[in-house]
Write a structure and sequence with these properties.
The mean pLDDT is 95. The protein has eleven helices and 21 strands. It has 384 residues and is of the alpha+beta class. Helix 1 (14-22) runs parallel beside helix 11. A hairpin with a 2-residue loop joins strand 9 (137-142) and strand 10 (145-154). Strands 1, 2, 7, 8, 9, 10 and 20 form a seven-stranded mixed sheet that branches. The chain has a seven-stranded antiparallel sheet with strand order 17-16-13-14-15-12-18. It has a three-stranded antiparallel sheet with strand order 3-6-5. The protein is 24% helix and 24% strand. It folds into two domains: 2-185 and 319-377, FAD/NAD(P)-binding domain; 191-316, Translation factors (Elongation Factor Tu (Ef-tu), domain 3), CATH 2.40.30.10. It binds flavin-adenine dinucleotide (FAD).
């Protein structure tokens, strides 16, 4: 194999497929992916139903350079994404917090992409190992041989879920062409715990509604006690902003502890928590579970810990479980107009490989689609 293309796209994920779908000049374009199928992450996302965007999307939902994120999102916003898919027959439903999911299956999205890229050559089961420049062309070394292209679109995603093809190739390419990359970490992922939280293990399977504070950001939602630590939407969102140090969990948001004073009911009944969880925390705090009227003011005071439980997670569940990767190619070294590198002409970065990471709720696919649109719509445009 030794072939020249006009454009090569590394990655048949959300951003690479949307880019290939929107590209006007499809001839002489190649998509490469190390997986055996296109859209591997799309297929398993949102529990198989893919949360593809949200009713309300703004730069506030992202960790990244605000003006850059806003500028790219505004080119192909949530309404345009919804219209694009609806126009191709995708049936969607809105669930809580404005999250749009496929009515039937995430595979419906993949089927749409298959139809859209039918004229584009796709090379699957092929891993890109290195990219450099040779005689003015991008020379792409893969495990199947060399390929050459005039333009290169890096849509290779982040480091999360290596079993679905994730690799550091996008970051490696960026660095080799003089880009800066920020430190990467697993994000939208559960936390592992310190020995002091060992009692959480017994609660595995229980779910509670909490507010988690990290770095001045508060995330409300369900928290799941898992075998390895804690997970669930509130924790996943908190993990996006956590680097190290303490997080604070309010296990009783909007609840007044004063309201239980003098009650004849048992503490574990009065606390708005699953009984098992309430009892475990009472044990942990050294407060005997009994009628609230019999509990001293000092003991009741101990329960305040439940509203500001502060601890430092030991770490996260890691890339194998993380939905996304925080960090990546520094965004303002890329032109938001067409996503072209400001360091190397005809080199483009789209999707999660950039240092832009969304919260839980469809924001990461929205980013993949918006950045792909910006790139495709102004592709090869010198007037940027
Ligand atoms: C379990 C899970 C559930 C998720 N659910 C949601 C959700 O419901 N909503 C949401 O908004 N986001 C969700 N996400 C995040 C979302 O999937 C990603 O943010 C999005 O897919 C990023 O798109 P991308 O095109 O940048 O990268 P990807 O979709 O990751 O695509 C990159 C592609 O590049 C390929 N590749 C990488 N390295 C190489 C190489 N060296 N050679 C060849 N090919 C390579 C990979 O195989 C991959 O197919 C979820 C993620 C996971 C892991």
């Amino acid at each position: 194999m030794n072939k020249n293309y006009q454009t090569i796209i590394i990655g048949a994920g959300a951003s690479g497929l949307m880019f290939a779908s929107l590209l006007q000049a499809k001839s002489n374009t190649l998509i490469i992916d190390s997986n055996k199928n296109i859209g591997a992450k799309i297929a398993i996302s949102g529990g198989g139903k893919c949360n593809l965007t949200n009713e309300i999307v703004s730069s506030d939902n992202y960790l990244g350079i605000e003006w850059f994120v806003q500028s790219v999102l505004s080119r192909f916003d949530e309404q345009q994404v919804l219209e694009w898919f609806a126009g191709r027959g995708l049936e969607l439903i809105v669930r809580k917090d404005g999250q749009y999911f496929c009515e039937n299956s995430a595979n419906d999205i993949i089927d749409i992409f298959k139809r859209e890229v039918v004229d584009t050559e796709i090379l699957l089961d092929t891993k890109v190992i290195d990219v450099h420049k040779e005689n003015g062309l991008f020379a792409i070394k893969s495990n199947k041989g060399m390929l050459y292209s005039e333009s290169l679109v890096v849509a290779s995603g982040g480091l999360s879920f290596p079993r679905l093809g994730a690799s550091s190739i996008g970051l490696d390419i960026a660095k080799s062409f003089g880009h800066t990359t920020t430190v990467t970490a697993p994000a939208l992922v559960g936390f592992t715990l310190q020995s002091e939280q060992l009692f959480f293990k017994e609660l595995s399977g229980s779910s509670v509604f909490v507010s988690v504070s990290v770095d001045d950001k508060v995330h409300s939602g369900d928290m799941l006690f898992a075998h390895r630590g804690i997970s669930g939407p509130a924790i996943l969102n908190a993990s996006l902003y956590w680097e190290k140090g303490n997080i604070e969990i309010d296990f009783l948001p909007n609840f007044s502890l004063d309201s239980i004073k003098g009650s004849k009911k048992q503490l574990s009944t009065l606390l708005p928590l699953p009984k098992k969880v309430a009892k475990a925390f009472l044990d942990y705090l050294g407060v005997t579970d009994r009628a609230a009227e019999k509990v001293s003011t000092e003991e009741l005071g101990k329960l305040k810990v439940l509203q500001n439980y502060s601890f430092a997670p030991a770490g996260t569940f890691g890339y194998s479980k993380a939905e996304v990767t925080r960090g990546g190619v520094v965004a303002d070294e890329v032109d938001p107009y067409n996503m072209m590198s400001l360091k190397e002409a005809n080199l483009y970065f789209i999707g999660e490989v950039l240092d832009v990471t969304g919260e839980l709720g469809g924001y990461n696919f929205q980013w993949a689609f918006s950045s792909a649109f910006a790139c495709a719509n102004s592709f090869g445009d010198d007037d940027a």
